[in-house]
Write the structure tokens for this entry.
Amino acid sequence: MQKISNLFVGILAGLTLGIPCAFIQADRIRIGGQVIPYGAVLALALIVVSQLWLARSSQSRLSAIGIAIGWVISVILLGKQFGSYEQIISAAWWSNVYVIGGAVVIGCACTLPPLRPVIKSDELPTPFTDGMKMQESDDREAGQDQ
């Protein structure tokens, strides 16, 4: 049951992220007469970071796969023309980079294992320098025993 809920949460997160990212991917800036379409990279980075974060918090790849499924659904729906309205993901080259590159990058992010969870502890960790001093004294004691 936990696996199904991880997948379902991932699909909802993918739909929630896919809709605004479809608008973000069309963003571009003009610098010195040159158009730089940074929106596709920004949108894909947002989705990949969300995949990694959700997979880490749930300790399951199914969450990342769910985000990918939700993203695909939103791309398919927003790439169609709605009656007399324009389609949101148009047939521009930066949109092709977003769709094709997104499928590759998001698919690759699905194969990554979930990162280890952050250890929650009430005690403070030993400072790095104190740990080094303890290691040096242990090494000296081990050398004297031989």
Summary: Residues 2-24 form the longest helix (23 residues). The chain has five helices and two strands. The radius of gyration is 23 Å. The first strand starts at residue 29 and ends at 31.
